[in-house]
Every structure is written in structure tokens, then in C-alpha cells.
Specification:
Length: 132
């Protein structure tokens, strides 16, 4: 693994800061969804928690390395790489879950609208038969 420069550390710091913001704002679960899919919600909340923790560790180590060259000599690159990789993997998995949940909601709304339209047609046919 190559040695990281100050520019690399600055870039990593930016990536981890944005990732931390994404964990803080994007991965929330509604109470209704948690009640319906309890196990899945627990898994994804745990995944979010692990990702956030890994991001914090990577962010702190990168910050220390950026401002203290003596500390960076003692911090192995793997100590930043491993939690950073875990955080990015968690973010990717949570993003896939978020997209999947949105697609399911859109499909459910489409099915509900279709069923509602069919119910209205049946009611119209039923009332027209009674009128005759």
C-alpha cells in the first residue's frame, strides 16, 4: 500500500465528512415500516450504526494524521483503510436498501390506484344495472 500524502488525507477527510453527513440524514426508518418489517429494520439500523462508527473512527484518525506528522508515522494506513472501507460498504448497502424500499412503495401505490380504479368501475356498473 502506498504512503498517503497530505492531499490524500485532505481528500479522505472530505469523503468521511460527507459520508458521516449521509449517515446522519439519509438512513432513517419510519415507525410504520419498523412495525411491518421489524427484523429488516433492526438489520439496517445496526448496519447504519456500524457504518457511522467506522466513519467516525476513520475521520478521527485521518484528522490526527493530517495535523500531526508524528502521529501519522505511528498510524498504519490500514487503520484508516479498514474502517473507511467498512463505512463505504455500509453506505452502499443502505443506499441499495433505500432504493429498494422506494421502488416497493411506488409499486404499492400503483397497485392501490389500480385497485381503486377497478372498484370505481365496478360500482359504476353495479349502479347502472340497478337503474335499468
Amino acid at each position: 500500500m502506498r504512503e498517503l500524502t497530505a492531499d490524500d488525507l485532505g481528500l479522505l477527510l472530505s469523503v468521511f465528512a460527507v459520508l458521516l453527513l449521509a449517515f446522519a440524514t439519509n438512513f432513517h426508518f419510519s415507525r410504520k415500516e419498523v412495525r411491518r418489517h421489524r427484523r429488516a429494520a433492526i438489520v439496517f439500523v445496526s448496519l447504519s450504526f456500524v457504518g457511522e462508527g467506522a466513519t467516525v473512527i476513520a475521520l478521527l484518525l485521518t484528522w490526527i494524521a493530517l495535523w500531526s506528522p508524528k502521529a501519522w508515522d505511528r498510524i498504519d494506513n490500514a487503520l484508516v483503510f479498514i474502517p473507511g472501507t467498512i463505512a463505504i460498504c455500509c453506505a452502499v448497502l443502505l443506499t441499495f436498501e433505500s432504493v429498494w424500499a422506494r421502488a416497493q412503495r411506488i409499486a404499492e401505490i400503483g397497485i392501490e390506484k389500480h385497485a381503486s380504479h377497478q372498484d370505481q368501475e365496478e360500482l359504476a356498473q353495479h349502479t347502472s344495472h340497478e337503474a335499468q
